[in-house]
User: Fold this.
Amino acid sequence: GLKETVVALPGGVLLAVGPSGTSLSRDFGNTWQKVDESSLHAASCADGECWAVGGRGVIGKWKGN
Assistant:
């Protein structure tokens, strides 16, 4: 599905968000695992925590691997 933001985390982990949900890759994007169905559009990470925003005031938080 469509992803609008990909954030690089330590250890080759990628977090991708978009209207089709959130996906996580632990191998630099070779394989992906869907972790959430929420429609999000942008994300930012710092100190092991990631925040994402979607339409209609939706806010998501990802903490840890």
Remarks:
- The mean pLDDT is 92.
- The beta strands are 5-9, 13-18, 21-25, 33-36, 42-46, 49-53, 59-63.
- Residues 15 and 39 are 14 Å apart (CA to CA).
